[in-house]
Amino acid sequence: MSEAIAFYVLSGLVLASAWSVVRNENLFHAGLSLILCFVGVAGIYVNLDAPFLGAMQVLIYAGAIAVLLLFGFMLTHDLMNAKQERNQHAAGIFAAVLMALVLIGTIAGAQWYGSSGQPVKFGVESLARRYMQQDLVSFEVVALLLLASLMGAVVIARKEEGSRD
Amino acid sequence: MIGLPHYLILSALLFSLGLYGVLTRRNAIGVLMAVELMFNSVNINLMAFSHYMMDTAGLAFCIFVITVAAAEVTVGVALVLSVYRNRNLIDLDQVAELKG
Amino acid sequence: MPEWVQFSAGKHFQDLIAHLSGRSVPEILVMPIMLAVILGFICGSSLILIWAERKVAARIQNRVGPMMTGPRKLAEFSMWTGGLLQTAADAIKLLVKELIIPSKTDPVPFIAAPVLIVTVCVTAFVVIPFGPALSVSDLNIGVVHVVSISSLTVLSIVMAGWSSNSKYSLLGGLRSAAQMLSYEIPLIFALLGPILLAGGLSMQKMVLAQREYGCWFFLPSLLGFLIYYVASIAEVNRPPFDIPEAESELVAGYVSEYSGMMFAMFFLAEFANMFLVCSVAATVFLGGWLVPFMAVPEQMTPGYIALGTLVFFAKTSFLVFIMMWIRWTFPRVRPDHLMNLGWKYLFPLSLLNLLICAGVAVLKDVYKLNGWGVSLASLGALVFVLLLLQVVRVPRPTAFLEKV
C-alpha cells in the first residue's frame, strides 16, 4: 500500500518535472526541474529496494551531472537572458506521442513472467561480487572510458595558446 | 498493487518526453538535458526488471549507464563550451558544417 | 557483537512515550518528529558554534570577544564565560529583520536556495550516530547517504548565485560550484579506505568495526584522515578555502543579496555543515562513540549510552576546534592553487590511501594481524611510498597538457 502511494507520488513528481525540463522557456528553470526529476527517480529506485542506486543517482546525476549542465549553461549565457525558442514543434509532438503509444501498447499487450514472485532486496555486497567476478571486463572498460572522457574533456575545453582572454 | 508494467509505463512516458525535448530544443545544453531524461527512463526500466526478476544484472547495468552518462556529459559540455568560445554559438541548428 | 547499538533513536522515542503515557506513537509520525529534533539540534549547536568561533578568534587575536550580552557575573569570571547570549541576540535580530527580495531576482530559486541548503543538512544528519543506539535511522548505506545528500549543497549555492542577478553572487556561485565538485572526489575517495576496512557502509557498523580492529581507523588510514579533513574544509567553504565568499573580492559571494531570515539560514547551514563533516570524521576515523580503554557492554546500559554520547561530542568538538584554529591561522588560498591542490595532490594521494587500505585489509585477513599490526603496516607502506616518490622522479601527470 505505502509502496503504491510512494510510486504514484514519485511518478507524478518525475513526469511533471520532466515536462518542465522539455517545455520551460527559461533554461535555468528547466535545469532545476531536471534536478527535481533526478531526485524523483532516486526515490523510484528506493521504492524498488535499491537504496544504493538511489544514493548514486543523487550523488552523480543530481550532484554532479546536473550541476555541470547548469555550469555549462551559466558560462554560455548572459545573466538573466535565459529565454529559449524551439523548432520542429509538430514533428516533436508527433514522434513523442507515437513513441509513447508504441511502447505503452507493447507493454500493455505483453505477458509478463516473473512479476508474481516476492521481489528480493540486493545489498551492496551482491553488486560488488558481480563487478569483481562476472562483469570484471566491462567494469575495467568503463573505468577506461571515464579516464578517456576526462582527458578528452580537458583537451577539448582548454584554451588554445594565444587565444583571446 | 504496483507491478512491473507500472514502472515500464512510467519509463516509456519519461522516454517520450525526453525524445520530444531532444527534437524540439535548439539550445545544446537543453538537448543534453533531454538526453539525460532518456537515460533515466532506461535506468528505471533496467532497475524494474532487476527487481522483479531477482537478478543483479539490471542493477549492475544501471550503474554502468550512470557512469557512461557522466562521461557523455563531461565531453558534451566541453564541446559546447569549445564551440561557444570559438564561434560564439550555442544554437545547434547553426553548427551545421558536417551536414551533407 | 552487541546488536543493541544499531537500535534507532526513533525506537527509543517510541518506547519512552509508551513508558510515560502508555500510548504508542504511530510509525508515520516518528520520522517527522525526529527530523524536527534534528532541526532543533542544528539550530542550538550552531548558536553555540558561532559563539565558540568568535571566542576562539578573540583568543587567537589576543582580544576577549563578545562580553556584554549575557550574565554579567559570569563575564567577570573569565573571557570564556562572557557574552553567552550574544549569538541568541544576533539570531533574534536576524529573525525580525525585513525579508528583502531584490526586484530583479528570479524569485523561485532565490527563495528555494536557503530552504534547500537547510533541508539537505537536516537530511544528512539522519544517519549520524550521536551515541550507541542514538542515530535517527542507521541506514545500510550510511556513509554514501551523507556524501550523496550533502553533494546537493552545491546546487543551492548555484541557485543562489544565479538567481540573485548580481555579478558578485554569480562569481561566488561559479567558484563555489567548481570548488565543491573538485573536492568532493578526494573526499569520497578518502572515505573509501575505512569503508574497505570496515566492510560495510552503515555508520554504526563503521564504529563496531573499529571496536573489532582494536584501533581507530585514523591509524591504518592516516593519509585518508588528513585528506578527508582538508577536503571537508574546502567542502564547507571555510577559510583558508573560502574563495566563494572571499569578503575582500566578492562582498559576500552568493549570499550578497540575502538579508534577514534567509541570510540566517545560509549562516546556520554553514555551521551545521561544519559540524556534520566533523561528526562524520569523528565516526569514521576517530571511533565515533567508542570510549577509549573501555569495552562495549553486551546489553544496553543507559550509563554507557550517556558516556558514549559525551565521547562522541568531545571528539567532534575537538575537530571543530581545529577547523576554527586553521581559519584564524592561514591566509586564503589562490583559486588556481586550490584546484592544483585538489586535483594534483589530494586526489592521487587518496588513491594511494585506498591502495594501502586494501593491502592492509588483505594482511588482516590472511595473517590475522590485530589493529596495531595493521596500523604499523599501513604507516610503513605510506612512508615507503612517499620516500620512493622522493627518490624516483615522477613526471607530472599533467605534463602532456603543456605540449599539446
**Overall radius of gyration of chain A:** 20 Å
Spell out the helices and strands of chain A N to C: HHHHHH
| Assembly level | heterotrimer
For the largest interface, the chains and their residue counts are: A-B, 82 and 69 residues
Overall structural class of chain A, as computed from helix and strand content, comes to mainly alpha
Task: Report the mean per-residue pLDDT of chain A as an integer.
Answer: 83
Describe the largest sheet of chain A.
none
The parts of chain C where pLDDT drops under 50 for at least 5 residues are none
Radius of gyration of chain C: 23 Å
The coarse silhouette of chain A is globular
Give me the CATH superfamily of the largest domain in chain A: NADH-ubiquinone/plastoquinone oxidoreductase chain 6, subunit NuoJ
Tell how many strands the DSSP assignment of chain A holds: 0
Shape of chain C: globular
Mean pLDDT across every amino acid position of chain C: 83
Unreliable parts of chain A: none
For the terminal residues of chain A, how far apart are their CA atoms? 59 Å
Number of helices of chain C: 16
Any idea how many domains of chain A? 2
Order of H and E elements of chain C: HHHHHHHHHHHHHHHH
The CATH architecture of the largest domain in chain A comes to Up-down Bundle
Helix content of chain C: 55-70%
Description:
The complex is a heterotrimer of chains A (165), B (100) and C (404). Chain A is built from 6 helices and no strands. By secondary structure, chain A is mostly helical. Chain A has 2 domains: 1-84, Up-down Bundle (Four Helix Bundle (Hemerythrin (Met), subunit A)); 122-160. Chain A is globular and about 55 Å long. The model of chain A has no long low-confidence stretch (mean pLDDT 83). Chain B has 3 helices and no strands. Chain B has a single domain (4-90), classed as Helix Hairpins (Orthogonal Bundle). Chain B has helices at 4-24, 28-52, 57-87. The model of chain B has no long low-confidence stretch (mean pLDDT 85). Chain B has 100 residues and is mainly alpha-helical. Chain C is mostly helical and 404 residues long. Chain C has a domain at 98-124 and 138-270 and 329-393. In chain C, 68% of the residues lie in helices and 0% in strands. Chain C contains 16 helices and no strands. In chain C, helix 8 crosses helix 9 (203-213) and helix 12 (260-285) packs across helix 13 (302-327). The radius of gyration of chain C is 23 Å and the shape is globular. The mean pLDDT of chain C is 83. Chains in contact: A-B, A-C. At the A-C interface, helix 2 and helix 3 of A face helix 6, helix 7 and helix 8 of C.
